[in-house]
Specification:
Length: 161
């Protein structure tokens, strides 16, 4: 795809993509951001995209960007919904590191190893797989199970603090 083809694609499909995204999330500002991110992704790969498939690529990338946005939005609570009275403690201070270390000691050895390699050492899944002799999907499963166990072990942060 040439620069002229890219500009034509922007002129032709920007409004349609915006309507598509806006219909899903009903937030004008977020829809504009998603459309902009989508066109940025397309620009980064414009040399490898065929002009005839530009619309398909654009809407596929827009859909995936939309999914990423909605997943992130589910994890974040709006600021106005936070009740500040529930985020204070009245109990004695407890060291969260001690609680976390106690939880780590209860994990199976392989889960503990992959979790420490990922979260403490910063290795990616492929590197952890090479280190432990596991494939990437096994590494991801063990990390997920370890994090789930620790989340349940620690419970509510208010109980620990």
């Amino acid at each position: 795809m040439t620069v002229a083809d890219y500009n034509t694609c922007v002129d032709t499909y920007a409004d349609g993509l915006y309507r598509f995204v806006l219909k899903h999330i009903r937030d004008k500002d977020a829809a504009r951001d998603i459309v902009q991110d989508t066109f940025e992704k397309m620009w980064r790969k414009h040399e490898g995209i065929e002009t005839a498939k530009s619309k398909s690529y654009l809407f596929t990338a827009g859909y995936h960007t939309l999914i990423d946005y909605t997943r992130r939005a589910k994890k974040q609570a709006p600021f106005n919904e936070v009740d500040f009275n529930t985020h204070q403690h009245t109990k004695q201070y407890s060291d969260i590191k001690e609680v976390l270390n106690a939880g780590l000691e209860q994990l199976p050895e392989i889960q503990k190893s992959v979790l420490l390699l990922r979260d403490y050492e910063g290795y990616d899944y492929a590197e952890i797989g090479e280190i432990t002799g596991l494939n990437e999907s096994q590494v991801k499963v063990y990390i997920f199970r370890a994090r789930t166990f620790l989340k349940n072990y620690i419970g509510k942060l208010e109980v620990v603090i």
